[in-house]
């Protein structure tokens, strides 16, 4: 029984975290996605660096938001 209880508590924590979707988060996600695609295209569309493209786009957006 304890195990079921601890799993259900963890599940509810994740469920509540994923339920927090705001228009701003979606907007930021879309901006990052679009910029990552631009970075990918600028690199010539070479596969294998999509995570780097995403992280670079995310970093650029964070810098832009801080300004």
List the helices and strands and how they pair.
Layout: H1 2-18, H2 23-42, H3 50-66
Helix pairs in contact: 2-3
Offer a few descriptive terms.
81% helix; single chain; globular; 3 helices; mainly alpha; 67 residues
What does this structure look like?
The protein is mainly α. The protein is globular. It starts with a helix and ends with a helix. The chain has 3 helices and no strands. The mean pLDDT is 80. It has a domain at 22-67.
Low-confidence parts, pLDDT < 50 over ≥5 residues? none
For the record, give the distance between the C-alpha atoms at the N and C termini, rounded to a whole number.
Answer: 52 Å
Question: Structural class, judged by helices and strands?
Answer: mainly alpha
Largest sheet: none
Number of helices: 3
Strand content: under 5%
Mean pLDDT: 80
What is the string of SSEs from the N terminus onward? HHH
**Gross geometry:** globular
Question: Tally of extended strands?
Answer: 0
Helicity range: over 70%
- Cα Rg: 18 Å
Short description:
This protein has 67 residues and is mainly α.
